[in-house]
Amino acid sequence: MKTIVVLGAGQIGKTTAALINHTLFRILAFGDNAVSGHIYNIPIFSVEKALRLRPDIVVIAVRDTVRTKELKQQIQNLGFVGQIVSLSDFIDVMDMRSAVLFRAAERICNVEGSIAELGVYKGAFAAMLNELFPDRKLYLFDTFSGFDDRDIRTEAECGFSQADMHDFSDTNAAEVWERLPHKDNAKIFQGYFPSTCKNIQDVFALVSLDADLYEPTLAALEWFLPRMAAGGILIIHDWDSNRFKGIRKAVADYEKKHGRLALVPLGDFHGTAIVVKE
Ligand SMILES: C[S@@+](CC[C@H](N)C(=O)[O-])C[C@H]1O[C@@H](n2cnc3c(N)ncnc32)[C@H](O)[C@@H]1O
């Protein structure tokens, strides 16, 4: 069995380790100079110590191409002559989250209801939703001016993230509207969620939650889940995020109050989870 060292023990490294074909390869260790401990019972060593295990393959599990080049140089300087696989070559090209969305679209063809997204930003995912479901109503919720002060205060107080007022503020509703291929069925609700959903009465078949922060995510779980049709699919972006820890906490707090959700982590690089409405 060939052996692997995964360089990078952050969110990308953790996802990479799970994605590796464990019937053909054995991961000896993570190499990371900034953290220690274990992931999935696999030890995290310094890069140098991990390379001393003499792996057949080193997988560079970072998104940034410049950092990838630096790490490649570093391990070659340390004398590594085996195979090097760089995740950054395909991490933005291949997207398991999109793959799941395409399959989910087929799966929910018999589930009645509209489509919605909370956290639209420039509309990349929203345009995909609109393209995949041309005949369904699409509800899009965002401030279109970035995070709200009230939500950021919770993030700071609870140590969930370092979210800033200016993050994601470089967008506007008109720009998003322009990129939607089937505008007739779409409606944009600009402003603070949950204030913007107050007067809506509908049933949802697929909902995408991508607000990054604890408060709007918890509010969205409370609002959308009772309005989803049985068999409907809820996509929770960043559920396993190192950067936005409030998402997982919002789900945990929702479950504490309402009971366990049928949640499955996708294992993609975004840390997405999906919930099937029972
Ligand atoms: C990561 S971005 C969304 C990315 C988007 N789904 C895409 O496809 O690129 C997060 C968005 O959530 C929005 N957001 C966060 N909290 C919000 C709230 N309480 N109400 C409305 N929008 C919110 C932000 O304005 C930001 O545009």
From TrEMBL:
| Assigned keywords, A-Z | Methyltransferase, Transferase
Task: Kindly state a single biological-process term from the GO annotations of this entry.
Answer: methylation
- Mind telling me which Gene3D superfamilies this protein's record contains? Vaccinia Virus protein VP39
Output the InterPro entries linked to this UniProt entry. Answer: SAM-dependent_MTases_sf (IPR029063), TylF_MeTrfase (IPR008884)
| Gene Ontology molecular-function annotations | methyltransferase activity
Q: What name does this protein carry? A: O-methyltransferase
Q: Which residues form the signal peptide?
A: none
Pfam family name, one? TylF
